[in-house]
Predict the structure.
Amino acid sequence: QKEVEQDPGPLSVPEGAIVSLNCTYSNSAFQYFMWYRQYSRKGPELLMYTYSSGNKEDGRFTAQVDKSSKYISLFIRDSQPSDSATYLCAFGNSGNTPLVFGKGTRLSVIA
Amino acid sequence: GAVVSQHPSRVICKSGTSVKIECRSLDFQATTMFWYRQFPKQSLMLMATSNEGSKATYEQGVEKDKFLINHASLTLSTLTVTSAHPEDSSFYICSARPMRAGGVSEAFFGQGTRLTVV
């Protein structure tokens, strides 16, 4: 079983739609859960960061973590064309170790 | 959020020359930084972990003599691609994780460097 699984897409939605992006993981030692957005030819940008099960909301973005199911989600409400990017889930342990990334989901929001 | 600055953003060099990429944490200290390589439409591939004051730790399959890493201070790590060849053309990205109370934290990334070797 892969440590992290993320559907690569591509995912295409109309403007204004609710987008749901998901990742599953197998490593119970993961303590930190993150979502990054990466535009073409740019470095990843941190969107959401949490370390507990439940929901965390920031504007149009909601991150959801279910540690019992080893499943995390990112919801984007009222999606905009500017949300078109690749979204990467990432997981971290304690200690200064590299994050483990999903392969990324390419999202296109069509005006 | 914390800021990581990477320079240059784009470089074109001739085959056989060396290229240095700098990664700086602007508002926090980073004892450890990470270097990634990314091919078009693919995910990040960890190349090495850069440790301040000691040798870098390279991932399997990454040539340490080809990709020289120096972590000279708590805010600066450099990646030098030596004797570059066209197959080294890629997007290189650095990242660092600030130390926070209670442990480590999320990672912040530089803007990336697009290297083209001709």
